[in-house]
Design goal:
Blueprint: H1 12-22, E1 29-30, H2 47-59, H3 72-83, E2 93-99, H4 100-114, E3 119-124, H5 128-136, E4 140-145, H6 155-163, E5 169-174, H7 187-199, E6 203-208, H8 222-228, E7 234-239, E8 251-257, H9 264-278, H10 285-294, H11 297-323, E9 343-345, H12 350-360, E10 362-363, E11 369-371, H13 380-391
Parallel strand pairs: 1-10, 3-4, 3-5, 5-6, 6-7
Antiparallel strand pairs: 2-8, 7-8, 9-11
Bound molecules: (2S)-2-hydroxybutanedioic acid (LMR).
Amino acid sequence: MLDALEPQAPDALLALIKLYAADDRVDKIDLGVGVYRTDDGATPVFKAIKQAERRLVDEQDSKGYLGPDGDPGFVEALMPLIFGPDPDMGGRIAGMQTPGGTGACRLAFAVAQRAGVTKVLMGVPSWPNHAQILDDLDLEAVTFDHARPDGSANLDALLQALRSADANTAVLLHGCCHNPTGVDYSPEDWAAIANELASGNVLPIIDSAYHGLGEGLEGDVVGLRTVLNTVPEALVAYSCDKNFGLYRDRVGAFYVLARIPEQLDAILSNASGLARANWSMPPDHGGAAVRILLQDDVMRQTWLDELEGMRQRLRWVRERLGQADNEVPGVNLGALAEQNGMFAMLPLDKDQIAELRKTHAIYMAGSGRINVAGLTKGNIDKFIGALADVAG
Ligand code: LMR
């Protein structure tokens, strides 16, 4: 029976990791998969995480099962950061731990589907795995343009999609640092989105995977909080993989805003059942380290400083690219200085992307997405020169 299976192409983004590793040119540049890098090109474990892990090793006295919802202390410790001073909004918000932001997205889509959702509005381009998860669940993706050609957000396209949505539709929104474009909605845009959602029947699903890397921890949740303060119900997928640097430990959380507190148990019991059927229980280690870190004032401050350092470095890269606008005609590098987070889209075709790899040892996704964190003081001039070479 297994002969019936046709070979599948590997995930293009993850395949880049191997291609890059196999290249022995010393001045190669990795702008592929979304991991943060320091100005030395490293992806170190956060100091605050190391401290929390040491304490975890000392204090943990059992590896017994925690259950499909994971570590409730982790889930609750994140809530004030995400939802603000009234973190459960009068008893209407609760959540559970998931394997990374991907697990949280999967769970959000699957819970929405159980509630009757058949279509999901999605601005494109989006993180490629969003479409893959929807496809795997047999949910229909209804797409609209996320950004305009000038590099600004296409609010009208989203509002139009919301207005013309069929019954049983959800909308996927990136909370901040849009992946792959870096193009975020402004606070005024979010107010208009929340307004439209409040008057319609579309269920918001907010994916927040880069909290703290755009406008800062408070600025990056303005949109999410505006929506949650306005709509009756919503789902949130949250990732700690980037802002705590825990990528391979797979640390995420799924939250529900229920219409009334009495609905929460029913919704979460569905989520628990789906988690049990999918992965049974999330891995514990990284979430436990985040819990310990957030509950300790000293470690927490160390983490805040490290996160702010990352954000400032991403800003520096974006500003440097913006200054090079005139050096690379036709690519609109100027817009990158106005955008947020780890990613940006460059209007390059397949041949230009292949040329960057072959001639200049620069690796980026086939879509034209770059991870701006891969650029450093040591390689950014080479990158700008190579871009001018292939785009000119
Ligand atoms: C990315 O978009 O590069 C990251 O979110 C990593 C991933 O899992 O794709």
